[in-house]
Amino acid sequence: MKKKLIIAAIVVALFIVGIAVFAATSIFNLFNIGISPLEKADGKEQTGRRLEVSFSYDKQLMVASSQYAIWVEDMGGNYVDTLYVTRYTAQEGYHRRPKSIPQWVSVANPAEMQPLEIDVISGATPRSGAYRVFWDFTDRSGNLVTGDEYRYFFEATMYNDDDVMYSGVISIGNDEWEQFPIPEYSVPNSEYKAMIENVRVAYYPD
């Protein structure tokens, strides 16, 4: 009888531990999924060495629209890291809509990413407004990069295969600088140009 009571107590204890672990994991996932690297342009003032990409965004209300990604490559064209990507495309939306930010999909290869990596670099499609995102000069594994020059890319699918691309060179040094990259449209007379505008890229050495 005593042995049965001990076994029953162990089973109950394991059950309680299991519930606690499940609850903790669920809470973590709930909050983790809500985290986005994108923030309002008028957010908290930042300090320290960083690259800042700011822009204005006008959310398009059609299906197959409002997807974008900002990422960094080295000068040899090798993928370094994604600063931000809309979560729909990152989480296998590229299967349903192959025309959605195709260059990012080709370079970053989200099919090979772990779910946690996608959670870290992505966020829900935001409301219209002014936004910014930062690069802390680390690669996708969190290691500090060692080069002096990299390239940034800002690709947006405005509607179907109506895309825009902003790009430029990142010079890492002691001098502060800013750029206003010129957009390259897949459809020159696109009626959706207002989706992504006023792109500014700035480097702060400290």
Fold blueprint:
Blueprint: H1 2-34, E1 39-40, E2 50-57, E3 65-74, E4 79-86, H2 87-96, H3 102-108, H4 115-121, E5 122-123, E6 129-135, E7 149-159, E8 162-171, E9 177-179, E10 184-185, E11 196-204
Spell out the key features of this protein.
2 domains; globular; single chain; 206 residues
Shape: globular
**Which stretches are poorly predicted, pLDDT < 50 over at least 5 residues?**
17-34
Number of helices: 4
Q: Largest sheet, described in full?
A: 6 strands, mixed
Structural overview:
With 206 residues, the protein is of the alpha+beta class. It folds into two domains: 1-34; 38-204, no CATH class. The chain contains four helices and eleven strands, in the order H-E-E-E-E-H-H-H-E-E-E-E-E-E-E. It has helices at 2-34, 87-96, 102-108, 115-121, and strands at 39-40, 50-57, 65-74, 79-86, 122-123, 129-135, 149-159, 162-171, 177-179, 184-185, 196-204. It has a six-stranded mixed β-sheet with strand order 5-4-3-7-8-10. Strands 1-6-2-11-9 form a five-stranded antiparallel β-sheet, with no helix packed on it. A hairpin with a 4-residue loop joins strand 3 and strand 4. The chain is globular, with a radius of gyration of 21 Å. The N and C termini lie far apart (70 Å). 25% of the residues are buried.
Give me a quick take on this structure.
The chain has 206 residues and is of the alpha+beta class. It folds into two domains: 1-34; 38-204, no CATH class. The chain has four helices and eleven strands; from the N terminus they run H-E-E-E-E-H-H-H-E-E-E-E-E-E-E.
